[in-house]
Amino acid sequence: MTTMVTGEQVKDAMTKAGITFAAVRQCSICERPLFFERRGEDVFFDSNCECVRAISQVQPRTWEEAAAIINQRAEGPSKTALAKEFGLTI
Q1: Any domain includes 70
Q2: Which whole number is the average pLDDT over 24-41?
Q3: How many domains is the chain partitioned into structurally?
Q4: pTM above 0.70, yes or no
């Protein structure tokens, strides 16, 4: 059975656990974590890393986009670990 989460579940879990940053992957070159950042009711994605010359702005995202990152993973330890980054237990 495939476990799916909603944006509201992600938001609630991060808020309840007091999580500000959730790493979703690493840069393939410098291995710096790229992450979602919770700022109150809003969520942003930080794609900056050590190997780029220009620093980009942290990008506003929706909670549904954060949930989609989790939902795209195949069931198993990788998905469980990613969900844990957001404060979820699946």
Answers
A1: yes
A2: 93
A3: 1
A4: yes
